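Q: Please design a sequence for this.
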């Protein structure tokens, strides 16, 4: 099923770009609907990234860490989970911007747990970007910027940003970063700064 029209329609109804949590919920809902159709095969797990796929560079890691931080440190050196700054609730986050199942109010991690999950997340999002790009070329800086975007939004696969990149319209793609600055129907200054940094990295030779 082509999911793009569904994503576009929901985005128009919301009147804002998707958050990573929005994309995850929509994907789950569509997967459930497809699975209930007679004769529909069970969805297959996403394959591992192909050999030779891009690897995240130091510029991308530095950019992600500079905006994610390892926030909400306690006096005992551990870290508390915290609510989304835009919604005041879901998605809850801990450590280096980690979200997902099992992360919610009251969760506490050690520094080692935060760092281990961060490495897992970096690889997961790099794999997702590699799959989204397919055969489309990307420089290391473009790839790093796209991974940072995916890490924060989870929305690259259905985005105009990806379409323009694949079409070779890199200037147009760079302009798309600045549209993803909303959370909870508000423009967040932190997202404005992050999107500007991602666009600058994307355009860097």
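A: Design:
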């Amino acid at each position: 099923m082509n999911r793009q029209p569904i994503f576009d329609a929901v985005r128009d109804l919301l009147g804002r770009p998707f958050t990573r949590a929005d994309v995850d919920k929509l994907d789950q809902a569509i997967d459930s609907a497809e699975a209930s159709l007679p004769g529909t095969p069970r969805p297959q797990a996403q394959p591992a990234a192909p050999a030779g796929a891009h690897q995240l560079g130091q510029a991308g890691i530095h950019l992600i860490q500079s905006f994610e931080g390892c926030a909400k440190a306690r006096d005992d050196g551990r870290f508390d989970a915290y609510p989304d700054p835009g919604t005041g609730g879901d998605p809850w986050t801990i450590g280096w911007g980690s979200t997902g199942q099992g992360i919610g109010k009251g969760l506490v991690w050690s520094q080692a747990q935060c760092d281990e999950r961060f490495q897992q997340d970096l690889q997961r999002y790099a794999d997702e970007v590699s799959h989204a790009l397919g055969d489309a070329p990307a420089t290391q800086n473009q790839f790093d910027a796209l991974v940072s975007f995916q890490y924060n939004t989870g929305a690259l696969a259905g985005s105009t940003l990806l379409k323009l990149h694949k079409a070779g319209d890199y200037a147009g793609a760079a302009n798309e970063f600045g549209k993803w600055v909303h959370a909870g129907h508000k423009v967040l200054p932190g997202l404005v700064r992050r999107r500007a940094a991602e666009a600058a990295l994307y355009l860097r030779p």
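Q: Thanks. Anything notable?
A: Residues 22 and 155 are 9 Å apart (CA to CA). The chain is about 50% helix and 5% strand.
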